Amino acid sequence: MTGTATSTRRRSWPRVVGVAAIVLYCLAPFYWMVVSAFRRPGDQFAITPLPRPWSVENFLAVFKPDVGFGRSLLNSVIVAGTTTLLTLLLGTFAAYALARLNFRFKTAAAGVVIAMSMFPVISLVVPLLKLFTNIGWINTYQAMILPSLSFALPLAVWNLTTFFRQMPEELEQAAMVDGCTRGQAFRKVIIPLAAPGMFTTAIITFIVAWNEFAIALSMVNDKSMQTATVAISRFTGAYGFDQPFGTQMAAGVIVTVPLVIVVLLFQRRIIAGLTAGGVK
Amino acid sequence: MTSTSTTEPLRAKTRSVPRHARGRRRGRAEAGRLAALLLSPTFAVLALVIVYPLVSALRDSLFSSGEQLDENGFVVQGDQFVGLRNFADIVRGAAATRFWNAFGNTTFFMLTTVAMETVIGMAMALVMHHALRGRGVVRASVLVPWAVPTAVSALLWRWMFASDGVINAIIGHQVLWTTEGWHAKLAVIVADVWKTAPFVGLLTLAGLQIIPGDLYEAARVDGAGSWRQFWQITLPLVKPALLVAVLFRILDALRMFDLPFVLIGNQKRSAETLSMLAWDEASNLHYGPAAAYATLLFFYVVVVAFLFVKLLGADVIGEARGRRAVGRRAVGRRAEDAPAAPPREEVVPA
């Protein structure tokens, strides 16, 4: 990039405009959600750039006891958290094998994992819905967690494989020369070093699992078991509007802002992970 | 990034330590056993949550349940084997209009959104690549649409597209965006592009960052303008990364569900996709037709992915293999300058 630096300084304003356009494109709708959430319900349709006056009524409406949104948030944390933990546990082993071991069918194994991540969720929701109905799993956490593994696991395996490959192999070899078995080398050398990569994978997996909608919508019909994304889409008018947009925006802020903060804190890592995995 | 050493770990190692030649065969067999051990939990789970449903859907699609009436008008209990009748009904029976509409919507959304996302994403990547100031801000803001849950972003756009919403206020017309008709389609496209174009931009940026800067200098010396540089250097060299991003977007667009479901609603003709159709049938306990829709969607995805990989040569698994070949052909190897683009092949044996 040093080569282009001289010419970029000459005409820098189009770049500034471009940067501003991207930031505006990405943040304007998000900004509108936050602003709308902080308006009074009566000002819902105001289009001033800032709420006048500011109000947290929409947020209070979200947490009214009969809405049960707190419970939905908890459900989301349980489902996305368990999915992430399981995924990380299984995915680390698989990724290590794909990154470090030399065995037959390695390409095939990697290909299968990638292919699985392209699977349309609905194609598995329909048969699993029937299965879970028959075995009484509707309205359970496992009915949401297990299908979520279908997209979380390939994503995590792919991410972790990339991270494992980036670590110098000499470390592991040195440990094995010093008398460690492969398993010990893995546990004592690789895992501690891979911790940042695993952390990034965990964040990405958690966000993707947290954002899941189709499975949670299908497998649960009991209000107390639904996840936050489903709960938001089902809010009914607390203030007598056709659709309680203010309340929904407030709930949207609650569901999104923690993710956005995490994303901002770890943006470098997440981008490296996303572009390495290449999977949403 | 001296990543070549990781391609064939054991062979490379044994080659450098020749006195362990006898241990090599043993090592490889051991590696095979270990690999099987390490991979089996993942594959067991994938078999349970993907292969089983796939087979089960295929089976269900050949049966009809619950909605048969016998000659006395009673509902027949249990599944009835109907062969390919579910598929025949879908393609040219009473439900055919709905199916072809959903098929058309799915294909239309896929083509329009992916085309726009590719162009916008490419533009974003170029801007980010050349940005001097505000890189951190751009990087952070580009991740925001990705982090917003699709269901929430659908609600957000539903709110902005509401009849008294901000978009109508800006354009000064009362358009009923989220009801039916082309407005509804447009609303879906806008919302989808907003959420995913930045993602395409990120993947493309990673591809841009490994293009050696010397190439541009050489081109400039030869008198090529920026337009020509883009078509002759940037585009061909970023193509592998771009193709993978586009493939992922295509497959994602084909299974689109949350966005039209929340933004427009269930059973709306203008925005019903194949996923929504299958889901709607399943939620009405028509498992046979639902499974048939799900199976058809699956095969549609497979066919599109296959054609894309075959025709355009998207190298999904060995994506960096192409990159590295390009890098080798290029004069200056500046791949080290690309922190955000770790090599991602090595799965492919040398």
UniProtKB/TrEMBL annotation, chain A:
Record-level GO cellular component terms: plasma membrane
Main location per the UniProt record: membrane
Keywords recorded for this protein, A-Z: Cell membrane, Membrane, Transmembrane, Transmembrane helix, Transport
Membrane topology: Multi-pass membrane protein
Statement: the UniProt record of this protein carries the keyword Transmembrane: yes
Domain of life: Bacteria
InterPro entries associated with the record: BP-dep_ABC_trans_perm (IPR050901), MetI-like (IPR000515), MetI-like_sf (IPR035906)
GO terms for biological process, alphabetical: transmembrane transport
Pfam family, one: BPD_transp_1
Transmembrane segments: 12-32, 73-96, 108-129, 141-160, 189-210, 245-266
Domain ABC transmembrane type-1: 73-266
Signal peptide residues on this chain, from the entry's feature table: none
Compartment(s) of residence: Cell membrane
CDD domains registered for this protein in UniProt: TM_PBP2 (cd06261)
PANTHER family recorded: INNER MEMBRANE ABC TRANSPORTER PERMEASE PROTEIN YCJP, MALTOSE TRANSPORT SYSTEM PERMEASE-RELATED
Family the UniProt entry places it in: Belongs to the binding-protein-dependent transport system permease family.
Protein name stated in the entry: ABC transporter permease
Lineage: Bacteria, Bacillati, Actinomycetota, Actinomycetes, Pseudonocardiales
From TrEMBL, chain B:
Ranges for region Disordered: 1-26
Basic residues bias locations: 12-26
Chief localisation class: membrane
Family matches, as PANTHER family: BLR7065 PROTEIN, INTEGRAL MEMBRANE SUGAR TRANSPORT PROTEIN
Designated name of the protein: ABC transporter permease
Locations listed in the record: Cell membrane
Family: Belongs to the binding-protein-dependent transport system permease family.
Residue intervals passing through the bilayer: 34-55, 108-128, 140-160, 230-251, 290-313
This protein's record includes keyword Heme: no
PROSITE patterns listed in its UniProt record: ABC_TM1
A Pfam family: BPD_transp_1
GO cellular component: plasma membrane
Membrane topology: Multi-pass membrane protein
Organism: Gandjariella thermophila
Keywords: Cell membrane, Membrane, Transmembrane, Transmembrane helix, Transport
GO biological process, one term: transmembrane transport
Signal peptide annotation: none
Annotated ABC transmembrane type-1 domain residues: 103-308
